[in-house]
């Protein structure tokens, strides 16, 4: 039930508050949190106190607020990505052992690729894909691999509403990328997120041949070996699919 001038319910405000934490910042000042959540400072203070009492948020030194351990525990206890991560990890480790570069696992959430796992090591190239981070479909090989292997209705809905905030790419160009990805069975993007890297991703397919995840790597341009990378990724993706009991 809504009980605020804006019409937001208590649940709406709690979700806005928890969602206001950016992926690369672990804690925020209370006033910054209120501003990012679009809530009055007094409301934010009250909700933070209530959530902290349940361990969902935590009051840090210096008046900072950060997500609580209880929030992480609940999110991971029954998360549908937990089985996926467990099934994928041995295959991701094998690929990283061979490539010595970043390996990532993503799922489609709305019109974005949501990264649920990533392996990297010292000396690997820059990788903007962070665990629990998101990227728009059209700028990530993971996103293209996922969207290209959805049903046509989902693809058309995505393309009808597509806008590029930078104004560099239109729906027709994205449609061509999706068609190419579907035909090839893998997605590749050269220097889109980082000019010195190449992203390659393949879909993890269920029994209906729809992508439930994508498995990808980020490699330096100078070390790009498409003919070796793609078969290795596709073999690993099939292995992950076999391990998933609910496919």
At the first level of CATH, the class of the largest domain is Alpha Beta
Main sheet characteristics: 6 strands, antiparallel
Q: Estimate the strand proportion.
A: 15-25%
Number of helices: 9
What's the name of the CATH homologous superfamily of the largest domain?
GAF domain
Q: Could you estimate the helical fraction of the residues in percent?
A: 40-55%
Can you give the mean pLDDT?
Answer: 86
Q: Provide the spatial order of strands within the biggest beta sheet.
A: 6-5-4-9-8-7
- The tally of strands reads 9
Give a brief outline of the structure.
It is built from nine helices and nine strands. It has helices at residues 10-19, 30-37, 41-53, 69-77, 80-99, 141-147, 152-160, 171-184, 226-243; strands spanning 28-29, 57-60, 64-67, 102-109, 112-119, 134-136, 187-190, 197-205, 211-220.
What do you see in this structure?
The chain has helices at residues 10-19, 30-37, 41-53, 69-77, 80-99, 141-147, 152-160, 171-184, 226-243, and strands at residues 28-29, 57-60, 64-67, 102-109, 112-119, 134-136, 187-190, 197-205, 211-220. It is built from 9 helices and 9 strands. It folds into 2 domains: 10-74, Winged helix-like DNA-binding domain superfamily/Winged helix DNA-binding domain (Arc Repressor Mutant, subunit A), CATH 1.10.10; 80-243, Beta-Lactamase, CATH 3.30.450.40. The chain has 247 residues and is an alpha+beta fold. β7 and β8 form a beta hairpin. The chain starts with 9 loop residues before the first helix and ends with a helix. It comes from Arthrobacter sedimenti.
């Amino acid at each position: 039930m809504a009980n605020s001038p804006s019409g937001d319910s208590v649940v709406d405000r709690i979700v806005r508050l928890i969602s206001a934490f950016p992926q690369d910042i672990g804690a925020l000042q209370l006033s910054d949190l209120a501003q990012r959540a679009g809530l009055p400072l007094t409301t934010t203070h009250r909700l933070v106190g209530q959530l902290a009492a349940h361990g969902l948020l935590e009051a840090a030194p210096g008046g900072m607020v950060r997500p609580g351990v209880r929030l992480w525990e609940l999110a991971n206890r029954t998360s549908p990505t937990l089985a996926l991560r467990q099934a994928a990890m041995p295959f991701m480790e094998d690929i990283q052992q061979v490539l010595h570069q970043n390996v990532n696992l993503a799922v489609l959430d709305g019109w974005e690729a949501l990264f649920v796992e990533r392996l990297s090591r010292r000396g690997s190239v820059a990788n903007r894909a962070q665990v629990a981070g998101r990227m728009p479909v059209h700028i990530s090989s993971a996103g293209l691999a996922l969207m290209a292997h959805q049903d046509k209705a989902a693809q058309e809905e995505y393309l009808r509403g597509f806008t590029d905030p930078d104004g560099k790419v239109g729906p027709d160009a994205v449609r061509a990328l999706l068609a190419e990805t579907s035909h090839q069975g893998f997605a590749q993007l050269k220097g889109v997120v980082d000019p010195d890297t190449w992203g390659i991703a393949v879909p993890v397919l269920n029994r209906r041949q729809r992508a439930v995840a994508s498995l990808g790597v980020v490699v330096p341009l100078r070390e790009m070996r498409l003919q070796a990378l793609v078969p290795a990724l596709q073999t690993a993706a099939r292995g992950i699919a076999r391990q998933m009991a609910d496919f």
